[in-house]
From TrEMBL:
Segments crossing the lipid bilayer: none
Protein's recorded name: LysR family transcriptional regulator
Organism field: Paracidobacterium acidisoli
Keyword Transcription in annotation: yes
Family membership noted in the UniProt record: Belongs to the LysR transcriptional regulatory family.
One GO cellular component term: protein-DNA complex
HTH lysR-type domain ranges (all copies): 1-58
GO function terms (MF aspect): DNA binding; DNA-binding transcription factor activity
InterPro entries cross-referenced by the UniProt entry: LysR_HTH_N, LysR_subst-bd, WH-like_DNA-bd_sf, WH_DNA-bd_sf
Alphabetized UniProt keyword annotations: DNA-binding, Transcription, Transcription regulation
SUPFAM superfamilies: Periplasmic binding protein-like II (SSF53850), Winged helix' DNA-binding domain (SSF46785)
């Protein structure tokens, strides 16, 4: 028994004749008649009482008709569900994110995605870049908003979309004053540095050391923090200064202000990454949304950076 047999049966029952069903289905009358005779033989019951050119359902045909309508309706629903799943309208999307880097835009992005794809469950997992790399290798996440670069082992397996390139800014105690109005990296040579631990932010950690080395000094590291909030607490307590990606200013910690650096060439790359060989349909709609929102994300980042002051004498 095939679905087409059931559709032929319903067409004949609704139109009370093979000729009318033939016109409706655009299938020859003999083909329909033969198919339904085979159906009756398969079931072992007579579905129709034939009288000339008209037919009517038998008692058993009436029962079969009601159940057939339910079966066809469910089949149509199943087919539509499959098509919607193929379009990414159903399913799950597991997204990893760096909390500080995405604080300014991820909540809005997730809300927009939910409005576009209400049938998709989005699972958010906070992970730093090294944790995301491991999760990609173990296929635990569909995508991640993270920092470049990736290891040579993983990089060839990933597709990436650039979201944002941002400079580092200097986080200082709110009452701190530098001597120069134009703050340069070499002006920090005598300062106590507070860094995020390298195992959580290796790219930024190495960039800071490289910037200092290029300026001719090694940073005096007073302490290393596990989390950005801990780093801000130490800065607000006057324990030192910190170089951080500009996006971290979104947290607006009390007792801390931010200063711009002059002639800083380093940019922290924030990207959306996903595996080339594993692209669930739910991911495609998210990628398109990120692509659409990148302009707004970058505009917000520029405005945030403009809010950082210069050093004052």
């Amino acid at each position: 028994m095939e679905l087409r047999h059931l559709r032929y049966f319903v067409a004949v029952a609704d139109r009370k004749g093979f000729r009318e069903a033939s016109r409706f289905l655009h299938i020859s009358q003999p083909a329909i008649s033969k198919t339904l005779t085979q159906l009756e033989q398969e079931l072992g019951v007579a579905l129709f009482a034939r009288s000339g050119r008209t037919v009517r359902l038998t008692a058993q045909g009436e029962v079969f008709y009601k159940q057939t309508l339910l079966t066809l309706q469910q089949a149509d629903h199943a087919a539509e569900a499959a098509r919607r799943a193929a379009r990414g309208e159903f399913g799950t999307l597991t997204l990893a994110f760096c909390s500080v880097a995405t604080y300014g835009f991820l909540p809005r992005l997730v809300q927009q995605y939910k409005e576009l794809q209400p049938g998709v469950q989005i699972l958010l997992r906070e992970m730093n870049p090294p944790q995301q790399e491991l999760a990609f290798l173990q296929r635990e996440i569909d995508a991640g908003i993270t920092r470049l670069p990736f290891s040579k082992k993983l990089a060839p397996d990933l597709e990436v979309k650039s979201i944002l390139r941002e400079p580092l800014v200097v986080a200082v105690h709110a009452a701190y004053r530098f001597a120069s109005r134009k703050l340069k990296i070499e002006d920090l040579s005598e300062e106590q540095f507070i860094l995020l631990q390298r195992n959580g932010a290796p790219t930024v950690y190495d960039a800071i050391l490289g910037m200092c080395q290029k300026a001719g000094f090694a940073p005096r590291i007073a302490s290393e923090a596990d989390f950005m909030q801990t780093l801000f607490t130490l800065v607000a307590a006057g324990q030192g200064i910190a170089l951080i990606p500009a996006c971290a200013m979104n947290q607006r910690p009390p007792g801390v202000r931010f200063l711009r650096l002059q002639h800083d060439d380093y940019r922290a790359d924030l990207i959306l990454a996903w595996r080339k060989d594993s692209q669930p349909s739910t991911l495609q709609s998210f990628i398109r949304l990120v692509d659409k929102e990148c302009k707004a994300i970058r505009s917000d980042a520029r405005q945030l950076l403009e809010s950082a002051g210069r050093a004052k004498s």
